[in-house]
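Morning, I've got a small favour to ask if you have a moment. I owe you a coffee for this, so here goes:
>
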Amino acid sequence: MLTPALAATVFLGVGHPAQAIEAPFRIGDHAIIVDAVVNGKPASFMFDSGYAGFLVVSDQVKIGPPAGVQGLRDFVGSFDATTVRVDSFQIGALKRTDLNEEAVQMPAVHYAYTLSYGTHCDGIMGFRAVKDYVTEINFQNQKFVFHPNSFDITKKQPNNTTTFLVKMEPRGMNSIHLPTEINGHPVHLALDTGNAFYATTHKEVLQRIGLWNPNEKPKYMSQAFVASGPVDSFSFWVNNATIFTVPVKSAIFDIIDLPSSSADDDGTVGFGFLKHFNIIIDYERRYVWLENWDGKVFDEPDAGPGFRLGFIDSERTRIFHVYPSGPADLAGIKAGDRLVQVEGKSTSLLKPEEIEKLLRGPEGSTCKIVVSSNGVLKRLELVRKLMVNGTRAP
């Protein structure tokens, strides 16, 4: 139920609201999902503070004719995409009018948005959509709050235990880089709600700060999917770090086995860290306020059977990656095999997130599965293992 202050829509061009305005969001699989209206068309978007643009929209949502081409860059590469003009945009009680913005339009098959986030999603809402406001991302109550400019977070007093006032670094274009230190060395990471991992950096960064031998190969390799395509990656224990001035004893970082696409950036801090905080971003004053609302900075990880699934339409239960030396690999499972059952339940009757939940569990626990390999059914009982490189600090 809306409060009286929220019952009326507030129409704005670019500028600060006279009062706080709220817009609800929901939490998908490792993502913020917000319902919006773009050029009069309803759509749902994953909020990605690491994307400097305004919107990325599936071509299944017809918001207007093509207007041009825009170049995009992710962790490792760049590509061009068609753009569509955005004249009006509304989330919650906030409606922006007389805009002169562009949305990037991508083929629906390029991003399986809904499958990726476990809830309906039509694209990405970037930082540009909220950059002009003192924007609060309230994970605790699942809502955005757009504060008036008089709401000055630099006047707030942090206790540096549960609340933190952090000055942005002078780098990046329309991005939020905050101080981070790993192994006694500064690294340049951006605040990125669109990164589903805890944090992501590059192997060359680990080498630079003395955490990785250039001649060493990761024991457990995987693949991460970024906008420009799949890239080799691995998980790595990072110990005794300070992320955005917040002490973190141990956490698992996702490491990309390719150089960064930018000389200015070392990577981003993602949803796995950010979800533990209510965050207020004042881009004009160049400060961020963090409130550790749940008392945690890292969730204990679940272990798995050593493979990843490709949830793609009719082949939604096909195994697309098997971790070398993991339980599945040692049991003879190959990429391309089909997962038929997990814990006695048919995968054809389960949602992707339900399958993933059944596969995960405490390290050392067992997982019963049935796979089809070249038409031959195999009934297996695998011992779940946490496949992370490096060593966790005691």
